[in-house]
Design brief:
Radius of gyration: 28 Å
Oligomer: single chain
Strand order of the largest sheet: 3-2-1-4-5
Shape: elongated
């Protein structure tokens, strides 16, 4: 009888766990929808400023900005890594970290060092124990509703290192959202600023007022900030999508576990009832 009680207690505890995973799946789905709405609202601005940058690349600028000049890698490479604050999202972070470690190893084989700017608690925790790269700035505990002002500090540190020519190139490392079941680790070049659209045709040069240097400086900085902020939102959406799938898988696995334990419970209960009936019949026959 005690074994039956223990099994019933175990089934009750597992069912409570199943309720938790199901609730976490629903919460992740709600957060993903909100993050997607924020991405969709910012997309027109990101798309417009991207077209302006592409036209700048093809125009004859009065002032050639440092961010537009290609620089061969000789000294150091900078990476801005966007990770998550929390776990329970499958292998999303680990896949991203492995991809970045392969890139760092490739540069180190060429005797080129790598500096990291890390956003997210998981990335900070992981790369503190990795000595292949130096962390020059970090932003743990970004939260689920970040604003541009929250990430402006690490961005400025990265841009300053590039302007001082301590970094030859800068890359953005994040999880690209494909769909709810697919989040792909992606490394995107940020500096020098590349042309994102190959079919942009050359247009006439811009007329600057009041000054080309001032306007281009501000424009390129805003462009980089918008690109990084957009990818932060995309990484957060990937996190919620991965967490939805992880919690759904956990809920299904718990359901199968409950069925298996229920079969064991039924077998033990049936054997117990059979044994009791046998004892009753044997006792009656003896009388």
């Amino acid at each position: 009888m005690s074994s039956l009680i223990n099994i019933r207690t175990k089934i009750f505890a597992i069912k409570n766990m199943q309720k938790i995973t199901k609730a976490m799946e629903m919460i992740a789905a709600s957060k993903k929808r909100k993050m997607q709405e924020r991405m969709n609202k910012s997309f027109p601005y990101v798309d417009s400023i991207q077209k302006v940058i592409n036209h700048l690349h093809l125009s004859s600028l009065e002032y050639k900005h440092l961010y537009l000049e290609d620089r061969p890698p000789k000294k150091a490479i900078g990476y801005l890594l966007i990770s998550t604050d929390r776990g329970l999202c499958g292998g999303m972070n680990n896949n991203l970290f492995r991809k970045l470690l392969k890139e760092i190893k490739k540069w180190r084989e060429q005797e080129i060092s790598c500096d990291l700017v890390i956003i997210g608690t998981k990335g900070v925790t992981f790369f503190r124990s990795v000595h292949e790269a130096q962390i020059i700035a970090q932003l743990p505990k970004l939260g689920q509703s970040p604003s541009l002002t929250d990430i402006i500090g690490p961005i400025k540190i990265l841009l300053q290192a590039y302007e001082e020519k301590r970094l030859d190139r800068v890359y953005l490392v994040y999880n690209q959202f494909i769909n709810i079941i697919s989040q792909v680790p992606h490394i995107m070049p940020i500096l020098p600023i590349p042309i994102r659209e190959q079919n942009v045709k050359k247009r006439g040069d811009y007329i600057y007022e009041p000054d080309s240097k001032l306007l281009i400086d501000i424009l390129l900085q805003r462009y980089i900030e918008s690109q990084i902020y957009q990818k932060v939102l995309e990484n957060l959406m990937s996190e919620q999508g991965a967490r939805m799938i992880a919690m759904r898988t956990a809920t299904d696995n718990i359901g199968r576990m409950i069925k298996e334990i229920q079969l064991v419970y039924n077998n033990i209960r049936q054997n117990t009832i059979t044994q009791e009936l046998t004892e009753i019949v044997a006792g009656a026959a003896a009388v």
